[in-house]
Design brief:
- The strands form two sheets. A seven-stranded mixed β-sheet has the order 1-11-10-4-9-8-7, with helices on both faces.
- About 30% of the residues lie in helices and about 20% in strands.
- A hairpin with a 2-residue loop joins β5 and β6.
- It is α/β, with parallel strands linked by helices.
- α5 crosses α6 and α6 packs parallel to α7.
- It is globular, with a radius of gyration of 19 Å.
């Protein structure tokens, strides 16, 4: 990212209407008796279009300003976006573009300088610290580049941690059923008694993903979840994220600088210099081919 007070960046074209690459790729069946796509502007993924929905997540004119010495630096400059329930959205951009700052604001981990964030109808940026903590615990799941597992706990205990913190017995009833389901999703059944130091890096990230999903959050926020993994293992984690969205209806916002990772999303928002520079609609695709996205990014000079 260029310094804020450096030369003005080369303008990047912003589309008035997002490019839709879904005409020739596999996608989910259309809803029963959908409204014509000509009647409404594009909203969410292609198979959600024509169905009026209240977004699960909204950002309205977000600005985040930091004070560095005698200068103010704007990490975000008037960002607005919406995410539909069950949608997989990627925030893509180079290091320093503002994408991770945006994710932190969307998840209530930080507060904007101006603007507001709405999660499932609640204005996150107006909540007290205690209220924001409650909302994060009840409505969001987080997966980061670093796994953040507790070394002394085994796989089952790490995944069960949200229930343990809430005072729910994770060995019985619905909690135990949920833990079994997410361990099956990430292919870790049979490894429940292993501690983190007995797992590969990819397996540890799968544990972190299962822990984030077990509470059935309204939205899963993933910040470079494959950043510490090799190519093949990273691809497996991305496939598991995609399956959680496709099979379970999990809403996901993924931050990445990697086109291959972003290609798993239904829709890609290209972030640069603290703004959303472009929107690329890919749709829910079985093959997750990155070429349409790479071609569009090349047109943008990225």
């Amino acid at each position: 990212m260029r310094p804020i007070d450096g030369p003005a960046p080369r303008p990047v074209p912003v589309l008035r209407r997002p490019i839709d690459y879904t005409a020739d790729v596999a996608q989910q069946p259309s809803p029963t008796s959908p409204t014509s796509s000509n009647d409404l502007p594009p909203v969410g993924t292609p198979y959600l279009r024509g169905r009026a929905q209240t977004p699960i997540l909204e950002a309205r004119n977000l600005t985040k300003r930091y004070r560095l010495g005698s200068h103010d630096v704007d990490a975000l400059r008037g960002v607005s976006l919406s995410v539909q329930r069950g949608e997989f959205v990627a925030l893509m951009g180079p290091s320093g573009s503002g994408k991770s700052t945006l994710l932190q604001l969307l998840g209530g981990l930080d507060r904007p300088t101006d603007g507001e964030v709405l999660l499932d109808g609640e204005v996150v940026s107006h909540l007290s610290d205690a209220q924001a903590t409650r909302l994060r615990r009840e409505k969001t799941g987080f997966v980061f580049q670093f796994f953040n597992l507790i070394p002394l706990l085994d796989v089952y205990e790490n995944v069960a941690l949200p229930f343990t913190i809430a005072g729910v017995d994770p060995r019985h009833g619905d909690a135990a059923a949920r833990i079994h389901d997410v361990l099956e999703l990430v292919d870790l059944l049979g490894r429940e008694r292993n501690r983190p130091d007995q797992l590969s890096a990819g397996e540890q990230q799968r544990v972190a993903l299962a822990r984030a999903l077990v509470g059935r959050p309204a939205i899963l926020l993933a910040d470079e979840p494959t950043g510490n993994l090799d190519y093949a293992t990273g691809g497996e984690i991305l496939d598991e994220l995609w399956r959680s969205c496709d099979r379970l209806g999990q809403t996901i916002v993924l931050v990445t600088h990697d086109a291959r990772a972003a290609a798993h999303a239904d829709r890609v928002l290209v972030v640069g210099d603290g703004r959303i520079r472009d929107e690329i609609v890919l749709g829910r695709r079985v093959n997750r081919d990155a070429r349409p996205l790479i071609d569009r990014l090349a047109q943008l000079g990225l």
